[in-house]
Amino acid sequence: MSLYSISVFLHIVGALGLFAGIALEQVGLRGLRRASTIAQAREWVRVLGGLRRVDAPSGLTILATGIYMIVTRWGEQAWAGLAILGMVVMAVLGVAVTGRRAGAIAKELPLDDGPVPQSLRSRLDDSVLPASASARAAIALGIVFNMSLKPSAPLAAAVLLVALAIGVAVGMIRRQTDQGSNPNARIANGAFPVRSKP
Ligand code: HEM
């Protein structure tokens, strides 16, 4: 057993952690969109707020072991450089989009429980959040593809670009289909007009 093989193991453990964070983000965003009370929304915001505790150590483990393996065995490789770039894009999306928007929702949550107010509903249904989450998931999958096949620079770049485009598209389509089956969003969009009492 060499230090290199331990690095490969830790690298893959880091990748598993990253995908656990991606799954939590997807579940958290879905729960937030479906929340009908302030207490439910607060719980899901808490899940999203805790993502950094999974993402950051996983990302650092991947990076440290990845750089070690590149330096000791592989030398300069386009797929590795592009993986670093992909990780930077994932981190920026995580902090600047999910983190910032979840923080804004947390600040707007009233202290008392009750139904989610109309003003907050539009924030919970924000289409940028699922698009960003799917883009992060797709970039991570694209990186795993490149890690496994170690393709040439143009192919590795094309894989990440296509993954990004598919991720954003899937996020937007899923948001629309989810909205169609989400009674909270349908009420907010006027699908069930509230009749005033005679
Ligand atoms: C989201 C980021 C990343 C994920 C999910 C990821 C995932 C993986 C996976 C699953 C493998 C195993 C592939 C195989 O054995 O065929 C692998 C291998 C590898 N990764 Fe990454 N990786 C990421 C980022 C990086 C970065 C940034 C670097 C370098 C700076 C890197 C360097 C390597 C190297 C050198 C191998 C080859 C190990 C070997 O086959 O001996 N990875 N990666």
Question: What's this, in brief?
Answer:
By secondary structure, the protein is mostly helical.
Describe this structure in words.
It is a single chain. The protein is mostly helical and 198 residues long. It has one domain (3-184). 82% of the residues lie in helices and 0% in strands. It has 8 helices and no strands. The chain has helices at residues 3-34, 38-49, 51-74, 78-108, 118-124, 128-149, 153-181, 183-188. Helix 1 (3-34) runs antiparallel to helix 6 (128-149) and helix 6 packs antiparallel against helix 7 (153-181). The longest helix has 32 residues, at 3-34. The radius of gyration is 20 Å and the shape is elongated. 27% of the residues are buried. Mean pLDDT is 88; it is low at 190-198. It binds protoporphyrin IX containing FE. Protoporphyrin IX containing FE is lined by residues 8, 11-12, 15, 18, 62-63, 66-67, 69-70, 74, 80, 83-84, 87, 140, 143-144, 147-148. Protoporphyrin IX containing FE (HEM) binds next to helix 1, helix 3, helix 4 and helix 6.
Q: Which stretches are low in confidence, meaning pLDDT under 50 for 5 or more residues running?
A: 190-198
Helix content: over 70%
User: Which descriptor suits the 3D outline?
Assistant: elongated
Number of helices: 8
Largest sheet: none
Count of distinct strands: 0
Number of structurally distinct domains: 1
Distance between the termini: 79 Å
Write the layout of secondary structure elements.
Layout: H1 3-34, H2 38-49, H3 51-74, H4 78-108, H5 118-124, H6 128-149, H7 153-181, H8 183-188
Helix pairs in contact: 1-2, 1-3, 1-6, 2-4, 4-6, 4-7, 6-7
This protein binds protoporphyrin IX containing FE.
